[in-house]
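Handoff note, outgoing to incoming analyst
You'll be picking up this chain. Sequence as last confirmed:
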Amino acid sequence: MNGHDDETLRFDRRRALRILGAGLGAASGVLALTGSEARAQTTLNCNKKVPMDPAAVQMRRNLQYAEKSNTPGKKCSNCAQYEAGKYKECGGCKLFAGAVNPEGNCLSWAAKLAPKPA
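Most recent structure output, in case you need it:
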């Protein structure tokens, strides 16, 4: 091999590595977007799970019920008012009618009491 062939080979190797790197980067981006879309599609929405009368809708507003808790450690699933499984994957609440997201929260959150020892 002469010097010219070495330069061509080095150039081809560089180009191949750039193309490979760009391809891997693009593939990673596509996979990341696809994964976040799948997570978004599986997010539980309990607001429209069952019909609610206007009084129940107003009570939910007054208590500032939210489908997703913004307060760490305070979510419907660990609240004393929560009724697990009342509407399949969505629960219910003792304070207002309608389906409740286990990851939700409202102003009336109260910690569940520990079960009494037997």
